Amino acid sequence: MRWRHPELGLLTPVAFQEGFADQQVCADFGLYMLDRVFHDLALFRRQGLALGRVAINVTNSDFRSETFLKRFFKLSAETGIPLTAFCVEVTESMLLDLNQECVKEGLSKLHDSGVEIAFDDFGVGFASLTHLRQLPIDLLKIDRSFVVNIVSSKRDQAIVRGVIDIAHNLGASVTAEGVETVEQIRLLTALGCDMLQGWYFGKACEAGRLVDLLSTMPACRTRQAGSKLATHIEASEPICSEA
To answer: Regarding the domain delimited by 3-137, which CATH topology (the fold level of the hierarchy) does it fall under?
Structure first.
């Protein structure tokens, strides 16, 4: 979310994060963003732009009532966009709140309907491994704090390698956040990371500019490795993933 302020210009959520402290305001934000995501995805489809799953960040406030889930299912039915076209990203803080049981129940309903569930900022919480046993997690997103120094830090490399091994043994995929250099791309790919995300590939942009952004991204190369589709890079051609 960005706020195009009439005097201050384009503001990131950090500039107006106080608004999210009010649960009702936060819930209204969630419904607004859900509507926009479906609207934009419908537009992309009309333009012939083929995308994978579109990720939506959610908060505890989205699960205070059935409103968010009902709107999600209703929009899918009205637009014809299947629920399998979406991913919902959660953070550990959502699972430690008083509303945690409602969150878990809501995530289970979404997952059972085909929505992918991603655990965002994995590795920085207090009980992340416990949640892997309790929730239907399809994707782990390794926090950028473990990626920024991964080329020079053996400790960070060991942690990332461990997270990837755990995720794969549980049948989940892994995305590394905060990727900004070719060296990080090479190392993460060698460690078996499934997807990469970061400013190396592109920064946030308006929906109308997405087609142009994707057209300028580095070319992807893939190869078949056993039963899994693996990615690899050549010296001058890094893999690409979500923007």
So the answer is: TIM Barrel (3.20.20)
